[in-house]
Write a structure and sequence with these properties.
This protein is mainly β. The protein contains no helices and eleven strands. Strands 2, 4, 5, 6, 9, 10 and 11 form a seven-stranded mixed β-sheet that branches. A hairpin with a 4-residue loop joins strand 5 and strand 6. The protein is elongated.
Length: 121
């Protein structure tokens, strides 16, 4: 019932920047939170950053001070500004939302298709 459309991934040199976007679309839903996860080959998927309806943010220690998550409530869109990128940031980044769906009345998590971020040295 909620579809997430991601954009902004790509190839960048170390020290560069990328901006990821994720727009949520659907019917009869209220977003509780949106965020970004990432998964590198052979590694577990991990939370990068999240933001709630109230604007509270949470970041992985590895990205604090470098990444900034923000949202546009009117557009149901979340952004991840990634600065000072490192090769260790290379991964597939997945948009995630926890949304309350009024039909059939449930809180569920939804995932985007993933976007590749590659940071070269």
């Amino acid at each position: 019932q909620v579809q997430l459309v991601e954009s902004g991934g790509g190839l960048v040199q170390a020290g560069g920047s990328l901006r990821l976007s994720c727009a949520a679309a659907g019917r009869f839903f209220t977003i509780n939170s949106m965020g970004w996860y990432r998964q590198a080959p052979g590694k577990q998927r991990e939370l990068v950053a999240s933001i709630t309806r109230g604007g509270s943010t949470n970041y992985a220690d590895s990205v604090k001070g470098r990444f900034t998550i923000s949202r546009d409530g009117a557009k149901n869109t979340v952004y991840l500004q990634m600065n000072s990128l490192k090769p260790e940031d290379t991964a597939v980044y997945y948009c995630n939302t926890e949304a309350f769906i009024r039909v059939p009345d449930a809180t569920r998590a939804y995932w985007g298709q993933g976007t590749q971020v590659t940071v070269s040295s």
